[in-house]
Amino acid sequence: MAGAAAAGAVIIVSILSLISVRAIERNNVQQIDQQITIVSRIVLLNPELAAGFVTISGLNNNLTVTVRDNGVVTASGPTQLPDLSTGFRTTTVGGVRYRMLTTSENQPPGRTVALGIPAAEAARATSEQQRWVLAGALLAIAAAGALGWLLAGRAVRPITDLTRQVGTRSGRPDPDNPQSPVDGSGVREAEELAEAVNTMLHRVDQAQGETAAALETARDFAAVSAHELRTPLTAMRTDLEVLRTLDLDEAQRVEILTDLARSQGRVETTLAALERLATGDLTNERDHVATDVGDLCDQAAHDAMRHFPGLTVRIDTDAELVTRGLPAGLRLAVDNALKNSSTHGGATEALVSAHRAPDGHIVISVDDNGRGIPTDERAAVFDRFVRGSQASKGGSGLGLALVAQQAQLHGGQAYFDNGTLGGIRLVLHLPNRTAH
């Protein structure tokens, strides 16, 4: 860039110098033309003066006149000017350059008068002036080139340093050793560019970090999912081999088929839970809509009593409790909580409550009278594929993970505390989000 700035300065000075040289040459020619014009007005004022002025011109080395009548020279100074068309011309006579004017103004018919002044002196003055201009131009070019290189180089040096700093940054961010922001101090434009680059690099690092974390989570999730599915699939394969190779009586056959159906149900339950988890990971803010939490809890309670006849569910909610959220997600969380109470906790009674706290937050809780969960397990059971010690066999270990995911998607949290019915209490603490 510094070289381009210097070259631009040189080009500009060169063009101005050429224009000045041409202007000097044209100005000197115009001065000669003005001298000839002044003399011509005297000579041509009276046609009879033209021939007489020829004699005078013979005594003046700076002027010569030639008179022609019908193309024939009738009077001329020591130097006879050529017969040219009317107007100003530059010609050479006897090795001497002349600037001449040919005219028939105020002359008898057929007469032309040619007046000429040697152009050598004007040419010498023009050459000298042009040499001075060219010398000045060369100095100006040198100065312009040097200053352009110096000033432009100083101006672009911060940008060059900025480019070098960006080029030396590693491609993958290290959370334990964050890279320093790039520095563009020196000129205002470079500082603004550095600020924009730092903002962009921060976003890139953040996106790369999130992508790396997502890939790591996906790898772990895939590994754990494969492990969780391998056990029931192995059991199913064993049952199928037994059915195919052994001669079983009816009771044995029913037992194998029951175990096979149980394994198939476990696989189906796990895959369904995985699908719901993946669906939750793909939701965004546009999916959140106005949701009546009280009505949602009421529907979940009635459905739970229909699916689990041994469970009685009571409702305690505010009259109007509307927030912005994912209706299907919140319903899934309450459904899983009630299912866990009945299936894994052995509860016969549950209480679903939803209220707005004094700070505006919404608290949804499910109390039961079941076996509960040991205190040291209450945080871990929200992880994927983790089962509590009190849980019944056959669970996928994803039910509470789905509850925790929905709480996170709504900007809140899920946790357990001691219940009011003798069992355990699952709480969803959600921030207030105005429904539009």
Description:
The chain has 436 residues and is of the alpha+beta class. It folds into 3 domains: 138 residues, Beta-Lactamase (2-Layer Sandwich), CATH 3.30.450; 109 residues, Helix Hairpins, CATH 1.10.287; 147 residues, Heat Shock Protein 90 (2-Layer Sandwich). Strand 11 and strand 12 form a beta hairpin. Helix 3 runs parallel beside helix 4. The protein is rod-shaped and about 150 Å long.
Q: How does the helix and strand content classify structurally?
A: alpha+beta
What is the overall pLDDT average? 76
Strand order of the largest sheet: 2-1-5-4-3
Radius of gyration, CA atoms, in whole angstroms = 52 Å
- The CATH architecture of the largest domain can be named as 2-Layer Sandwich
Strands, count? 12
CATH topological fold name of the largest domain: Heat Shock Protein 90
Task: Assign the CATH class of the largest domain.
Answer: Alpha Beta
Shape, principal axes of CA atoms: rod-shaped
Strand content: 15-25%
Would you identify the CATH H-level superfamily of the largest domain?
Answer: Histidine kinase-like ATPase, C-terminal domain
Task: Kindly list the characteristics that best describe this protein.
436 residues; alpha+beta; Beta-Lactamase; Helix Hairpins; Heat Shock Protein 90; 5-stranded antiparallel sheet; rod-shaped
Outline the secondary-structure elements.
Blueprint: H1 2-45, H2 47-58, E1 64-69, E2 72-76, E3 87-93, E4 96-103, E5 111-118, H3 120-168, H4 188-245, H5 250-281, E6 289-292, H6 293-307, E7 312-317, E8 322-325, H7 327-343, E9 349-356, E10 362-368, H8 399-409, E11 413-418, E12 424-430
Parallel strand pairs: 7-9
Antiparallel strand pairs: 1-2, 1-5, 3-4, 4-5, 6-8, 9-10, 10-12, 11-12
